[in-house]
Amino acid sequence: MKRRATIVVLAAGLVLSGLAASADEMAGAAAIVRTPLEWYVMGGPAMHALALCSVLVLGGVLERSFALRASATVPPALGARVAEALEVGNRGELKRLLAGGRSALTRLGEAALDPALDPAALETRGAWEAHRLRRNLSLIAALGSLATMIGLLGTVLGMIEAFDRIALEGTGDARIVAGGIFRALVTTAAGLGIGVVALGAHALLSRRAEDRVAALEHLTGCVVEGRAVRCAAGAPSWAVGEPGEESLTPSGDSAPFAGRRS
Known about the structure:
- The protein is mainly alpha-helical.
- The protein has one domain (about 45-240).
- The chain has helices spanning about 1-30, 35-45, 45-65, 75-90, 90-100, 105-110, 120-135, 135-170, 175-225.
- The protein starts with a helix and ends in a 37-residue tail after the last helix.
């Protein structure tokens, strides 16, 4: 019995000492707090290129978000009023709604009502509007991929430098090796972070741009036809109001975007 009690006491002591050591290690790790500037300096010269990529990605995302807003492309309220004007056959009201607007819908709709404009010219204008909605999206994706590659390049160069120093100094201290690799991996983390944000933003903005182009095809094509019909299945509901309401859609070759994709 006494022997068992001694074993229990020794085991408890080992557990407590282990917990104390773990607490000391956690306290020491928590004491190491680095500022963003320190992380930036640790990354080396590659961080300058990554900083430039991050600024360009942020600028591209903000620019596309502003350009693809509903009021600048297909305003929902305007789309609904255009549908109503076409449904009752009020051409004068339709011209008034589409005259002098700044959105892509008013520009294309006004051109579609111009009898002097032939279908080829209208198709060219539609292709240009689609290009305006999609531009700079490929640049955002390219910057995300480039940032990832720059991060990996910075890591490789940092590891080469670390191992070169170890070879010259001939040290066997594992902490020096780990420290060099730790510094080299900073650029990989930074590059991957920028790449994830850029590719995610590219996917979201590309989807929004395609939705805007599809809505323009539906509404402008119906202006060309001069009649209102039910929106085809899968058409974006924000284009002309709430689901279930009357909306517009083109048919056949009357869509100004037909056969052209930028």
